[in-house]
Amino acid sequence: MYEVIQGGVTAAKGFMAASTAAGIKYKNRPDMAMIYSTVPCRAAGTFTTNLVKAAPVKWDKNQVTGGADAQAVIVNAGIANACTGKEGMDYCARTAAAAAESLDIKADSVLVASTGVIGMQLPMDRIEAGIRAMAPELKGSLESGTKASKAIMTTDTKHKEAAVQVVLGGMPVTIGGMCKGSGMIHPNMCTMLSFITTDAAISKELLQEALSEDIKDTYNMISVDGDTSTNDTVLLLANGLAGNPEITEKNEDYKAFCEALNYINETLAKKMAGDGEGCTALFEVKIKGAQTKEQAKILAKSVITSSLTKAAVFGHDANWGRILCAMGYSGADFDPEQVDLYFESAAGKLQIIKDGVAVEYSEEQATKILSQQEVTAIADIKMGTAEAVAWGCDLTFDYVKINADYRS
């Protein structure tokens, strides 16, 4: 079992963070962050499935798959460094070189990440100045980690971080993380950046496997607007400073590590879905009674990406026909005349349909349930025992306003 603790990327031993206002796009607010480990780390990563990949995604993928240790991550908000050609890749190299010089580490141990407007080139003078400003300000305090999580925000309204502690091999091990994401978020590495740090001693191969497996049920099960970003990146760094016996096989310690990692990833994923651009509610969809988990996932994703369903949640309208409709065009086979559907929130739980047909229910009670900040739709398709959960948000007027003038 793990214990939820306060903190984020600086919660684990040996990790520090800093942030600064570099003036990349935003004025009078921090827009750059640095994560640093006092010793080299084993690194794992997962990246966007969009064929149009930002330069930082290509850089990090090359570094992680190439086997190089990682010791620092440089993140900027405001400009995505996507669709920027060779110049964009050269800027990644310049960013790594500047960090290497400021931190006295190897350039190939520096990972980079960007989020913001696509197509604009980075102002490298400001990026390099930001790196020089952050290096002497690195601290391992929880406050510095929180400040870093705020510096990487774009249209986010809340910073997002989480941390847990778990005992592995008799030693306390910490996993912490921070992320940003509010729009251009859709399953399959949803713009979304997540940085996870741990002092666990674990092989690079198992670190990568743990991350790759876990994103299937966490980050890949969220959607805000159906758009898969060019910049999606999840990085997991492990520096081994906890002193636990190194995890080199899938034993009980590996299982416990994966459970703790899952808490971090699911918590951060839900924070992103619940902070979707302009949203007022986190919308959770649970599919029960499926034949396979894949069938349940397809159905759950179809519902959370339905614009009509998202609009109904915003209007606190128990328009269950939209949910059944979204399940019907998902591509997954099921019998609509066997479906039971419920709405649930802090205000209670209410059955809406039984065997595909509406039951008598109070519209007033349904509205109360759908008026909460977290709303769940539960659909039982009565075909088996498999389940899946997906997370999204409602669709509001403000989503259009935010994205109509995002570049200005």
Automatic annotation (TrEMBL):
> Which SUPFAM superfamilies does UniProt cross-reference here?
DmpA/ArgJ-like
HAMAP family for the chain? ArgJ
Q: How does it assemble?
A: Heterotetramer of two alpha and two beta chains.
Enzyme nomenclature, EC number: 2.3.1.35, 2.3.1.1
Pathway, per Swiss-Prot/TrEMBL? Amino-acid biosynthesis; L-arginine biosynthesis; L-ornithine and N-acetyl-L-glutamate from L-glutamate and N(2)-acetyl-L-ornithine (cyclic): step 1/1; Amino-acid biosynthesis; L-arginine biosynthesis; N(2)-acetyl-L-ornithine from L-glutamate: step 1/4
Sorted UniProt keywords: Acyltransferase, Amino-acid biosynthesis, Arginine biosynthesis, Autocatalytic cleavage, Cytoplasm, Multifunctional enzyme, Transferase
Chief location of this protein within or outside the cell: cytoplasm
- What protein name is recorded for this chain? Arginine biosynthesis bifunctional protein ArgJ
Q: Which residues bind substrate?
A: T154, K180, T191, E277, N403, S408
Provide the protein's localization.
Cytoplasm
